């Protein structure tokens, strides 16, 4: 027993102190973000089920963009954590410049699509006869247009700051954004204090205002930080020698996250074809899942950044051992999350003004989520944390692409649209990739092949 503990469980208190220093601000920020989404959903749920369904599906397109820029910024943060560990500030500044340039270009592309193809986008997510839901989604998307460029900056800066031990600043920005979002949504959705009642448009505008506040705080604090001494002029510095390294690490991460985001959109389209009741039930289930796995987001981020920093410092065996520690922590969090879902799901469902049929679907989805969340937590700690921090981005791309597109999408469509299985089994098939990927990633962790050389350190060849 002691041999297993020594091999697989980190006992150094410094490790847990550093883990908490990164994880706690991320967890608190996740609490805030999830709280905003939960309150938004409940507010819209007080209007009509149509408003809830339309805004939920519109948000799928926004989430596709979020996945894309998260992929770029997380790929950049793998490099920034290494360079920060090696104290190579000039290279770190170049990585930040490259990431911002890529994300702003992507933000511009999504902005144009949002303006020019709004109706075509929303018609993908619903049956043709769901006219009211499509119109609600169009309104939400049009009022959300400004989000893309704002998020291009805020997401990159948030992940870079976390990777260089500046997690408190994104937390402060998130608290301010949370306050603005809740207040603005209440006023604009329901028309309080003399403002017009905007409904779905008010929810989108409230989110835009919150993003504006968050981005402003992050930019000001980042430029004033004395440890980095980053300036706007650094955005224009020559970065050609690092572009190849950036692309080698970031492109697989970006493609992986984009394919996951696209896959989630395809799953949302499948749900839309099943029916609006399934869409509404899933929007509730998704929020409960986010609440129940808040801790895993903090552990995943800390796993990515600490693994990168350890490898930047040349402590390869320590990084390997800590990887197993993160795996154990992830499994424990998943089991706890399943227990939490059983406790809170009934009260959450009853808070919505939805039909009895939709409530029954939501209850079935919650039961299925209790199974999926254990595996989701386990693979998240590896795919978004340890393996990504080790630079194993090509394997993660293969794992994400194959399990999502060869299993979840075809089996989910088969179960929901062809066999018309009960909601419980349909949901399990829609997210069966989480189970397979968790097992596959554990095998990869044990192999040791996830430890990759990037250039900010000298690493022995992985076994």
What does it look like?
It is a single chain. The protein is built from 17 helices and no strands. It has helices spanning 2-8, 13-45, 49-85, 89-116, 118-123, 131-143, 147-163, 168-190, 200-224, 240-274, 276-292, 294-312, 316-350, 356-389, 393-418, 423-430, 433-447. Helix 2 packs antiparallel against helix 11, helix 3 (49-85) runs parallel beside helix 12 (294-312) and helix 4 (89-116) packs antiparallel against helix 7. The chain is globular, with a radius of gyration of 22 Å.
Fraction of residues in β-strands: under 5%
Note the run of SSEs as H and E: HHHHHHHHHHHHHHHHH
What's the gyration radius in Å?
22 Å
The structural class is: mainly alpha
Low-confidence stretches: 456-463
Q: What is the tally of helical segments?
A: 17
- Using DSSP, what is the number of strands? 0
Sheet bearing the most strands, described? none
Layout of helices and strands:
Layout: H1 2-8, H2 13-45, H3 49-85, H4 89-116, H5 118-123, H6 131-143, H7 147-163, H8 168-190, H9 200-224, H10 240-274, H11 276-292, H12 294-312, H13 316-350, H14 356-389, H15 393-418, H16 423-430, H17 433-447
Could you write a compact summary of the structure shown?
The protein is mainly α and about 475 residues long. It is built from 17 helices and no strands. The longest helix is centred in the N-terminal third of the chain and has 37 residues, at about 50-85.
Provide key terms for this protein:
mainly alpha; disordered C terminus; globular; 463 residues; 0% strand; 17 helices
